Structures are given as C-alpha cells and as structure tokens.
Amino acid sequence: NAGVTQTPKFRVLKTGQSMTLLCAQDMNHEYMYWYRQDPGMGLRLIHYSVGEGTTAKGEVPDGYNVSRLKKQNFLLGLESAAPSQTSVYFCASSPTGGIANYGYTFGSGTRLTVV
Amino acid sequence: EDQVTQSPEALRLQEGESSSLNCSYTVSGLRGLFWYRQDPGKGPEFLFTLYSAGEEKEKERLKATLTKKESFLHITAPKPEDSATYLCAVQASGSARQLTFGSGTQLTVLP
Questions:
Q1: Chain B neighbors of A108, CB-CB under 8 A
Q2: How close A41 comes to chain B (CA, Å)?
Q3: Chain A residues with CB within 8 Å of chain B CB
Q4: Confidence of residue A97 (pLDDT cuts 50, 70, 90)
Q5: What gap in Å lies between CA B83 and CA B40, rounded to an integer?
Q6: What pLDDT is recorded for position A42?
Q7: What is the mean pLDDT of residues A11-23?
C-alpha cells in the first residue's frame, strides 16, 4: 500500500517555464490537497478537491492551477514559474469520514527551485 | 482568519529531559486540533486529534492536551529518536476539512 505518491521529488525550473506536479493516492480518499511549505511560514493551502471533478482555491492559489480528472490523482500546474514559487510542495489526502482518527495522509514532497 | 502560533521555534533537550511544546490558536469554531510529526525530507505524519477543552491523548512518550485557546504537546523522558519538527494544525467548523498549520517547533534531543 503506497499511500500518497508525489512525482517528481526534485525539480529545477527557469523563470517562465511551466510544469505539472503529480499526486496519486491508492486509499480511495475523497479529499485531496496541495500545500506549500516555506521556512518559518508553515504549510499553506494552495488548492483542494472534495471529489473527482471538483477543485477549490485555498489560501495561496495565485500562479497555480489544479485538476482532478480521476479520483486517485490530483495535479498541480505552474503555468509560468516565478522565483517566489520556490518551495517544498506537499500533497495530502483524507477520507470522507475518519479524518479525526487518521488526519491527512501526506506524500513525501516535491522540492522545487525556480531560478 | 484562523491563526496558529507555535512556540518555541526550536528546542534542544538532553535525553530524558521532559518538556512541553505550545500551540496557541484562534479559529472561528474549532472542529479539531491536530498534531503532526515531520522528519527532515519527509511529509508530516499524523499523531493526534483533539476536539474539546480538557481532552488528552497519549502515544508513547507524547501527551497532547487542549484548552480553549491552546494545546500542549508534553514529551516525557525524550529519546534522540523523538527529534523532529512538531506541527500543530486546526480545522474550523464548516471547512471542507482544510487545516491551518503553525510553523512548527524543531525538537532536538541530544544523547
């Protein structure tokens, strides 16, 4: 049971380039989330999804887009990368019920550097 | 706006030296308060959920408590393997399970 898998693990982009981060979960969870983690600022919510085909904005959505075409996958896109998007990105998922007992399940993160 | 503040930012303990980490929060109706552990280069790992003031949860050397304004993570007789960053998060009533996180306390336990 892999849990939540993020690809790639590391990436360096030039300013203006685009890329897609992939998150896949095999736990049949309904809810999925993308967070970014920066030193001294904690985890901040970018976008989230409450089910297949749905997405919503979080706290810091500007410069990012997401898609949830399949229940198990949640994609985060950067259309034109900026140095301010240098961060560690975490994907997480949670079931419809049971978040209290298990919280989120997080992936291992993608470290993105924009130069 | 929901806010979570953790203190101290960093804490160094000798093995066996008990201490507490603090998480202060303001939220528009608390649905749950969560504690996570994060090791370097990894994603956060769920530890506890607390729902209401007075509640306590324990796991090995860790005990989490909750009041109306803050939560404490007590570490009793820590070992070097307890070294990690501990994150606190709150879930507000009516939210789609989004969590608001604090910036964490980096704990180092020296042998």
A1: 41-43
A2: 5
A3: 4, 31, 33, 35, 40-45, 48, 50, 56, 58, 90, 92, 94, 99-109
A4: low
A5: 10
A6: 87
A7: 97
